[in-house]
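Reminder to self: tokens first, then the designed residues, so the page reads top to bottom the way the pipeline ran.
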């Protein structure tokens, strides 16, 4: 056991390899390939338990190595679904839970870490600990959003709810960022489980080279959309999803019309289609280019400063530089009240904050330009005192990590000393080493 050695060997867990800048690596140490763990469970990597009296009390017992898309497919066989998804379902359960797991349902159900009942965690001491809100709660809350610093998530119990089979999938185009952000914030104000509201709220940008989202629109509409982009430079796309099934399909069109009636999108640029629930949850896979290296920059931005990001980042960096990389720019708001402050993840201290995600696929000769651009974005945020929190953070110094966690830092350090005192786990994050 590494913890018992006079010179411990560092250990990193590697799920689906979506981490950035070597965070899932351990120089001169051991990398645990989590995908192999399923072979030791006799094919029981995912166990679905449906509560027939109240489907909202159902759950999935899954290995940390499992991919969210497989969890979804297994749950759907019982008429169930996870409540909150990331923007990519081809990430591992353990990988998203040590970060947060954010997506278009966060405004209603919170991040994925808010929908966990129990964890099995292997700590830096080598202990296998079962933990929850009531049992070994300190390790439970530390591990959720803890960047793998306290233990490897071997298994998790995930909340499930009743699944729909179909989705009304909407795209509304905006030329004005203020109208776009205000409409998003209005829509996420209906954030209780039983609210008659949209089930999915997310936003995108379309600027010149960043046209992957055109796949979402009818072919005959593309010339008209391109003309709108040429006229304004940047178009903001509000994407909405409203779930339904055979029992609710008669009134779904009327509900969608009512929910969008007061929104300030560009007239006649509203597109509605019907898709299956599973295809909807996997829609973003069609706009990524897995064949090329990918660069991810993810920021949590205080809601009061999101207009600064529009002017300083969207317009003056991404639009002006216009790199020929391919990818997607995501922007959408979340409610602070849907996050549990006991968890390790650092978020802005405002009731409304945004995820701004710039995901770029670039040929090797463009990687330096993309990296330089991302550093410019971070420098702009620092100079402008926007007080962002990086999601999937990649800070390089001890002082930057202290600043990142802010008021949570002392708890974070204390938990490290308790559960991984010899600094064995997740060295690629470069927090304590």
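Designed residues (433 positions):
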């Amino acid at each position: 056991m590494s913890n018992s050695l006079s010179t411990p060997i560092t250990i990193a867990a590697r799920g689906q390899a979506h981490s950035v800048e070597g965070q899932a690596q351990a120089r001169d140490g051991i990398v645990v390939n989590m995908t192999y763990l399923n072979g030791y469970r006799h094919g029981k990597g995912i166990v679905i338990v449906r509560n027939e009296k109240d489907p909202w009390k159902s759950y999935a017992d899954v290995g940390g190595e499992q991919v969210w898309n497989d969890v979804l497919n297994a749950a759907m066989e019982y008429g169930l679904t996870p409540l909150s998804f990331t923007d990519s379902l081809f990430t591992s359960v353990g990988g998203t839970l040590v970060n947060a797991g954010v997506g278009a349902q966060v405004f209603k159900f919170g991040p994925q870490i808010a929908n966990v009942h129990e964890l099995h965690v292997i700590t830096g001491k080598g202990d296998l600990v079962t933990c929850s809100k009531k049992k070994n709660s300190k390790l439970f809350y530390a591990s959720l959003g803890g960047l793998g610093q306290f233990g490897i998530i071997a298994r998790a119990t995930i909340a499930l709810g009743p699944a729909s089979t179909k989705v009304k999938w909407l795209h509304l185009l905006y030329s004005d960022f203020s109208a776009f952000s205000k409409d998003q914030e209005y829509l996420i104000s209906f954030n209780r489980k039983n609210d008659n509201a949209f089930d999915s709220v997310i936003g995108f940008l379309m600027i010149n080279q960043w046209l992957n989202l055109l796949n979402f629109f009818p072919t005959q509409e593309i010339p008209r959309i391109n003309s709108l982009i040429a006229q304004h430079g940047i178009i903001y796309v509000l994407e909405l999803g409203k779930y339904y099934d055979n029992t609710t399909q008669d009134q779904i069109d009327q509900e969608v019309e009512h929910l969008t009636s007061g929104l300030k999108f560009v007239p006649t640029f509203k597109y509605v289609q019907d898709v299956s629930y599973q295809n909807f949850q996997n829609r973003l896979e069609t706009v990524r280019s897995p064949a090329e290296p990918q660069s991810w920059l993810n920021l949590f931005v205080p809601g009061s400063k999101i207009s600064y990001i529009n002017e300083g980042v969207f317009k003056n960096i991404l639009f002006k530089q216009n790199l020929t990389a391919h990818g997607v720019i995501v922007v959408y708001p979340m409610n602070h009240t849907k996050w549990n402050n006991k968890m390790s993840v650092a978020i802005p201290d405002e009731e409304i904050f945004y995820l701004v995600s710039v995901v770029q696929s670039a040929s090797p000769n463009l990687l330096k330009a993309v990296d330089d651009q991302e550093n410019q974005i971070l420098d702009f945020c620092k100079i402008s005192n926007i007080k962002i929190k990086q999601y999937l953070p990649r800070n390089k110094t001890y002082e930057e990590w202290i600043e990142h966690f802010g008021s949570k830092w002392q708890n974070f350090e204390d938990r490290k000393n308790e559960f991984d005192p010899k600094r064995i786990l997740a060295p690629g994050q470069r927090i304590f080493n």
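The chain has a mean pLDDT of 90.
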